[in-house]
Amino acid sequence: MIDGDKIFWSPHTAKPLLDDALLVSVETMDGRIHFAAELGTETKFESRSLRSLLFSETDADLALLSKARQLLHWRRTHQFCGICGSATTLSENGSVLQCSTCSYQFFPRINPCVIVLVTRGNEVLLARSARYRASFYSCLAGFMEVGETPEQTVAREVREEAGVEVDNIRYVESQSWPFPSQLMLGFLANYRAGDIVPDPNEIEDAGWFKVDALPNTPSADISVAGRLIREYRRSLAEAL
To answer: N or C: which end of the chain has fewer CB within 10 A?
Structure first.
């Protein structure tokens, strides 16, 4: 269907044009349906990683791209049943994959994580990741473990990654994060005790930074980490 300069394809129409690419439908909050395809390495389309788009797209674009990536990851990693090994099939509404033999159902997986800004008066604890060779400093973060509350995860991750103890842990906001399918739970926490001792497997560098002399940090427009930093700076300014 053509509407002005926009072309809308049904999945049956688009599929032949994309060879054997994995194709999923993605519904946005306003009810619009989009289609996303996972392409092979040899393709005529331009290839860009999702991380490379983080600072160049709008919130709406990123939400759509994030959901598409998570659905594609779910479909790719659940093609076969983990119980009996048979192939899975997609339900009519696209919300569940079901085993064709034992009927076990697989829903899109979401991995809860915490991300925390540790504060000490007009200073915040920021770190640079050892895994991604990041050019910026950000908040500490980590996956929740079985049996933990988010607050317990905050205390454990800060202790393990930076060697310090925190208290007054409070939830602020959340964000979907598609690497590959995290739900980031954002917290603030007060420094309680200890000297910074970074875990070299996780942290390349960490330190206390005054809020009026911060290093390069994530954008508040697209990152819960950036918003935690921005809002804490704002709260200190308003308290003066």
So the answer is: C
